[in-house]
Amino acid sequence: MADVTQLNDQHSSDWILKVAELNSSRAIKPVDIINVISDFEVYEHIDKPYVTGKVVIADGQRLYERFDFQGGETFSIQIQRDRNESIEPIKKTFIVDEVLNVGRGNETSQAIVLHLTEDIGFKDVLQNVNKSYKGQPQEIIERISKQFLNKEVINNSEDNVENSMSVIVPNLSPIEAMSWIKNRATTKDGYPFFLFSSFALDKLLFFDLGSILSSNPINPKTPFMYSQGVELAEGPQRLFQIYDYKIKNVENMSSIINAGYVGASHGFYDITRAKNTNIIFDIHKDFYERSGDLNRRQNLPLISSNLKYDDKIVSDYESRRIHNIFASKSFDESKTLTEADKSGDHKRKVIANAVKHLLTKTPIEITVNGREFLNSKSNYTIGNNIKVVFKATQDDNPASKIDKKLSGDYLIHSARHVFAKEKCYSVLLITKIANYISDDFPVG
């Protein structure tokens, strides 16, 4: 992926609204609302194969009455990053799935607030899947997406060869079926997969976490930085300022222990063979000791291997005994969704779930310039790594030191893009599975 800093051209307006139309099968023609939109927001999430949004319309022409909103109307939008006509605008079609509010705006108009879901989200609820499939998870997902949603799926990994399976989808919607398959997919090292949609692209993305975490940040030379000095900076660095950040509901060690993903016993009972496979899981031996090469500068575990209680390392406790039941040999030539041939296959399932829980341990919400993420040729938000730097405080030489706990290469887990007047900003929920090992300022 290209360095996001290539986008740092500067203009008076952060974004340009090229098209904003409401349409319906009941309407004679589309209604242009480009001049009556007061606010527009877009939401992306790494666990959602569709984008959602919200738009506020200043209704001074009886639009709510005349258009007769019932839900199911289409809202088409095109947003351009600058006035360069050679750069394609971001194009997205949403479905109005709920009228959130209709209230007084001012003396001459009322405010209409519409909740929006990307068109495939609405197409999804109109269909269900009752079919059998055979193949790798990404192959099955691609077939379901093509057949029912007419969406191409981009896959960033070839490392899931152990997951070939036969499944009968049991009366699920297409997105439910794809998510069901996705939740079973792992790499050979146990990293989970994510299936998600991006505001910038008209495709679905099927990415494994190991490939994401081992990839370079999209802003290696211009980290997003929280420091008063950034406000005075010139050029690209000024555009990578963190305006605000929030840290809440973090470091909940007990919840990860209770879920069985620090130290626990996981049993897998095959009801066909009456055979039980027992897995003793240790977050350090089974994951952290094998993941250090993902990012050599950032491999200090979020759960320390020296953390003890009553002189015993926390991960050495068998804190939970979790039992799973599955049936084997339902198909002659391939495995079922939950079937595994050996204990290592079952352990990969446990590792994948443990890593997902680690992603919830230290999230940070940052507010940054949203304009840097508006590019119709590539996805620069969810599913990417960004470099974030918090300058150290109360240090003899704070200019060269960072807060190594808050700083890091973070995965963008979700994003809220706010388009208001001529300003665009993004609120990013970012997360990581390890901390920097040094407080030296990372350059390049």
Describe the structure.
The chain has 4 domains: 119 residues, Thrombin, subunit H; 78 residues; 102 residues, Baseplate protein-like domain - beta roll fold (Phage tail proteins - horseshoe like beta roll fold), CATH 2.30.300; 106 residues, no CATH class. It is built from 8 helices and 25 strands. A hairpin with a 5-residue loop joins strand 6 and strand 7. Helix 3 runs antiparallel to helix 4. It is globular, with a radius of gyration of 24 Å.
CATH architecture of the largest domain: Beta Barrel
CATH topology of the largest domain: Thrombin, subunit H
The Cα radius of gyration reads 24 Å
Number of strands: 25
Number of helices in the DSSP assignment: 8
Regions with pLDDT < 50 over 5+ consecutive residues?
5-12
Kindly name the structural category. alpha+beta
Helicity range of the residues? 10-25%
Give the CATH class of the largest domain.
Mainly Beta
Kindly estimate the percentage of residues that lie in beta strands according to DSSP. Answer: 25-35%
